[in-house]
Fold this sequence. Notes:
- The complex is a heterodimer.
- By secondary structure, chain A is mainly alpha-helical.
- Chain A has helices spanning 5-14, 16-37, 42-54, 57-82, 90-107, 112-141, 145-165, 196-204, 206-212, 219-236, 238-248, 250-255, 260-287, 299-309, 314-338, 342-356, 359-374; strands at 170-171, 176-177.
- Chain A has one domain (67-329).
- In chain B, a hairpin with a 2-residue loop joins strand 4 and strand 5 (72-74).
Amino acid sequence: MKFTAAALKEKILKGSLGFTLISMVFGFSLGAIVLLVAGFNPIQAYWEILKGIFSKPKYMSYVIIYATPLIITGLSVAFALRTGLFNIGAEGQYIMGAMTAAAAGYFFKLPMVLHVVVAVALAVMIAALWGGIAGYLKARFGVNEVISTIMLNWTALYLSNFAITIDAFGRSGTGKTYTIQDTAFIDILGHWKRTPEGIEFLRNHPMLWDILKSPVNLGFIFAILLAVMVWYILNKTTLGYELRAVGHNPFAAEAGGINVKRSMVVSMFIAGGLAGAAGAFQVLGVSHRIAKLAVMEGYGFDGIAVSLIGNNTGPGCLLSGLLFGALKYGGSKIQDAMNAPTEVINIMIGTIIIFVAMPKLIRLILTYKSRRGVK
Amino acid sequence: MTSIDFSRKTVEMIDVVKKFGDFVANDRISLTVHKGEVHALLGENGAGKTTLMNCLYGLYRPTEGKIRINGKEVVITDPNVAIHHGIGMVHQHFKLVEPFTVTQNIILGQETTKMMGILDLAAAEKKVSEISEKYGLTVDPRAKIEDISVGSQQRVEILKALYRGAEILILDEPTAVLTPGEIQELVTIIRNLTAEGKTIIIITHKLHEIKQVADYCTIIRRGKFIDTVEVAGVTEHELASKMVGREVSFAVDKRPAQRGERVLAIENLVVKDNRGIQVVNGLSLDLHKGEILGIAGVDGNGQSELIEALMGLRKVQSGRIRMRDKDITNASPKQIISEHSICSIPEDRQKRGLVMEFDVAENLILENYQRRPFSERGVLDHQEIYKFADQCIMEFDVRPQDAQMTAKSLSGGNQQKVIIAREVSNDPEVLVASQPTRGLDVGAIEYVHRALVEQRDRGKAVLLISFELDEIINVSDRIAVIFEGRIVGEVDAENADENNIGLMMAGGRV
């Protein structure tokens, strides 16, 4: 029989998507145990999360807003990883992108669409250079990119905090910069929804009103486009071919005539640009300014997990970024509903993520079982 | 000479079947080995030799069949059980801790201790020395693994098995990594072992070694038992035919060379290795159109560095390399491949030759992905890429015929065919082949040799580097001997004297 449980298992074992799904089931089960131990009813908690994600259009748009930067930093990490480079620096590149976008958004006076294009382009450029530094250090001097990107993260953080102290840029005493010009906003109907006509219109369309209560913006559309772009570059272009060859086997790539060092720099450059775009969209679409950071916000670090769960592919990052965003946003809902402390929620999310990110372990567990079955 | 005790069957494997899913790796194979016997297990790559031995050593559980050790039926669930029954295995890839000494490696997991678990290294060293002397293994118990030769490392593996009381030794392709001299030493060691009543099972696909050392030989083809023969009663030819399942020709069929003008000239080349030691010492060499120049030499005399320097993968310290009268010293790999038309079949195909995670088609365009028709303005044309791959697969007989198979799922011989297809279809003026038949079985070797001769017959130049003197003599038209980074002698292949070349390879003067 072809349709036996064994055949089904075989199929799931071979496909990476099936695997991720099984891992998620494991993850959620373990997350449930964490909740139980902490004294909360896991079924109720998961129900609250589901409700917190899907019960209102506003919630869903929040999930998307949460997910957008994570998807893009995920793409950044994934892109570098396909060339065999571990971009821990997405965090710093994100900060550089955000800072540049905030500056360009505030200082420049440009017409609407152009302003966004200029701000994003500059942010991407600066962040790409930031990532490129790590790539260059690796190619030229053999400096491990993990070390250099970690250091560049701190440099970026303090550079950004320093920029806020400059009077022309930062509003003194607030620890924040001035709000960017309206022309640089990428909010969807951001202005109109606050005008009297807008409010009047939205009263009659409660569904739309609900969605627009959240800072919906174009970032998600860009994230989708970037995911497609990453997939296209990696799989359809000679550049992607080079980068993947270097990632899998730099020795064979070198012998085949590929310039391995150049590939490293290019890969980190593009990865940096992607993370910078994440920062730019967050500033132009959600925060509209940057604030002094006491600690890193973690968008770049979460991108590492997003990339791993998404199997380091463009479309994969899109899905895993959404999952991440949903857990982050939905998870916060049990705080109010069940009085669960945020720590428990974070442990639960962490547990789920660890499992989802560990398909290797799951594969081991499953194959071990099937091997015992043979006995 | 023979020390076989036919009254005692030490290993009996009866109708052993091993399946991996639907794939039958071993299909009812039986094997009987007596005390003091050297039994060879012969088969092509992927025939199931190692699988069968892994069943004996407890790394796999047979799906069906029985195993008897010294007449008693046993179930070997893991290597510890195998060791308990006196079975030891020396794997093809050694399992040693490099920074540890010989003794530390040998006692690993079975440490001799004094009171309170303090290591008694002195006692262990003494025991190691004793065993070592008894069988003529000659290793220094205090030397660190990273400092000793590959041959010595193998002897440490043998010692490790003996230390654990092995009576039955399985050697998986023991000569694959050894130099000719070390192979002779190994043969002596095997004789010493059988003289002491040990039983040896040796996995190999090298026929002359079987003739040299084995008493009996069991032949496996595609997982099936073919025959067990007394080695003294068969020729190498008969063994080869049984292994491959058809007639095999050893002699390389070739016409006399039509030697043309000089294409490649290497002058006083000096190259350093990774440790910064000068290993190519003022080497000079000429290569002409329409000839195969074989470079004979023992491993580690600068061959790898010479090729890397030639292909632009290693810096030339001094000296010149000229191709068609253009200076290509320290040119980039890309220039050398595409502008100067030198292509190479690298010695380590998995490291330098293939991107193992890429599929066959992707590997086939590794040097040409930027050219039409494979890409245009930076965008790959997958239709053309796979069309080209299908062509290559047909022409070079790559099996299975699937351009989307990853390189790592192919057998060694087929991986090599993919590399040859890629390099030959570049139509290079100079083809460099380093150890092109390493680890391949007879059928594949025949194929590789024919490809090299074909290239020569088309008026191209071929540079062949090999540690196997037979191969050099059979395939080349002209032979240059390399010793300590220099060419120390040159002879015509036709009237080459194996002994003379052997002497030059060892640094002797003729």
